[in-house]
Amino acid sequence: MDGSLTRRDVLRRASLAAGVAAAGAMASAQTPDPPAAGSEPMVVSPYTLPPLPYAYDALEPYLGARTLELHHDTHHAGYVRGANEAVSNLVEARRTGSTSMAGEYAAKLAFHASGHVLHTLYWENMAPDGGGAPQGRVGGMIRRQFGSYDAFVKQFKAIGTSVEGSGWGVLAYEPRGGLLVIAPVKNHENVVVMGMEPLLVVDVWEHAYYLDYQSDRGKYFDVWMEHLVSWPAVDQRLAAVVR
Fold this sequence. Notes:
The protein is mostly helical. 53% of the residues lie in helices and 9% in strands. It is built from 8 helices and 3 strands.
């Protein structure tokens, strides 16, 4: 030992070294290791519930305030939560290398994310002053393809209300054929032409109309078409996908 160091110096240096080591250990425990090359961060919530574009009672007397409140705040919110959970589960499965539940997680994502997308479109394609025959580009396409607006409504109602159990009536643009397609979408994601762009969607799950129309899906559909459809919103969607 260096003769110039007193016992007090040695003890002070030992104490200082121990403190530095303890601080380093604490910092290491509080700061996570950087992700390994090629790894991906956890995705917590890529989907968010959009607010209704109008007040709960804005669509009365055709759809009641309680219907919209439950439909948006409970059902739509549930699809957003389910989609986020499915994404997180898929990311975690990739991180751990597990494949046992991957198929189920993917199916859950298709169901819940499609429900979120369709509900968002549904709120947007209704308006307090809606209804009536469409004008603009979508109106012209409907008349050319279906012969008349009345013929379109008749077929749209027949297909939309034919969904067994829960689902949607969807008017979509199919880009490969350049056609308007009416699809009876089961649940949120079944019987869908890949690549088609939904333009007008009507929710025929019972929670969309039961408080106001009980089990009369046909009456709900008729009132919905006559008083609630926002054709300007539909025309904007068409303009966004058909240049």
